[in-house]
Amino acid sequence: MNLLIVLPIVLGLLILLSIIIFNKFVKNRNLVKDAWSNIDVALKRRYDLIPNLVETVKGYAAHEKDTLERAIQARNNAIAVPAGDINEQIKAENALQQTLRSIFALSEAYPDLKANTNFIQLQEKLNEIEENLERSRRYYNGTVRENNTYGESFPGVLFAGMFGYQHFDYFETPAAERENVKVDFSS
Question: What angle do CA 33, 38, 39 make, to 5 degrees?
Fold first, then answer.
């Protein structure tokens, strides 16, 4: 008789636990996707701005064609990443970030470009977008941390495969940007 009472209670608790764990996986995945959508909106604004920036720079630095073409190619590569492939999008964005830095480095070599009001406005707009991206990336990384921690720790790890747990990559600073800046005081 005791077994007839205990067994349904234990079974009910296991079902309740499974439901709670499943819902936590869904919640974490949706938070990551929501955080990514904030990044995606800022990236779209950045993608729309890049051609204008390149056209402005072309007028002043025509022989820097290779740098400008790399920027456009990096932009096109980032746009071409299939929707929903967050991990690939992160890689493409890191490459695009590098090419944008090289465009702004050109302005140091061309004082007329540096003083151009259109270039200054585009640079300010891009800086604003980058600040929004930075905030969105921090939020995204927080949701990724929560998602990945839950899916890789107990009890989530026991149910991860069964409930379709998805591991997400962090948005990290590319290795080239982590290097120390070399300052030359010899000039």
Answer: 95
The tens digit of pLDDT for each residue in 70-89 reads 888 999 999 999 988 888 98
- Nearest C-alpha neighbor of 35 from the set 157, 184, 151, 146: 146
CA distances for 171 relative to 73, 108, 129, 134, angstroms: 21, 29, 16, 10
Confidence of residue 1 (pLDDT cuts 50, 70, 90): low
Which runs of consecutive H residues, i.e. helices, occur in 61-85? 65-80
CB 70 within 8 A of CB 54: no
- Summarised one tens digit per residue, pLDDT across range 115-136 is 788 888 888 888 899 899 999 9
Q: How many whole angstroms separate alpha carbon 130 and alpha carbon 142? A: 18
Give residues with Cβ within 8 angstroms of 180, minimum separation 6. Answer: none
Structure tokens at 65: 């064609």
Q: In the numeric block, which tokens belong to residue 179?
A: 């290097």
What domains sit in the chain, N to C, each tagged with a CATH number? 29-165 (1.20.1440.20)
